[in-house]
Amino acid sequence: MNKTKTMTLAIVAMIVMLLATVATAQVRTITLSQNYTGAPGNMVVETDAQGNLTGPMNAPRVLPSPTRTGFDFRGWFTTAAATGGTRVISGAYGTQFTTNTTIYARWTAKTVRTISNIPALEKDHFDWVKNTRNVCEGPVMRASTNNLIFHQIFAGNGSFNWAVRWESTDTVSLQERRRIAAMLYDGINDWLRPLMGYEDWPFGEIPVNVVGWAVQDGSLIRDRQPNETIWVNSDTLEPKSGYVTGDMASAPRERSRFINRTAINSAPGGPSNYNWPTSIGGINGRYDHYLWLTKKKNNGVQGACGSAEGGDWGFRWGQCLPGSGGSGTSAANSHATSGTINGVMLHEIGHAFGFYDWYGGPCCGCTQRNPPGYVSRTTIMDATYNTNVSGNPSLN
Question: pTM value?
Answer without folding.
Answer: 0.86
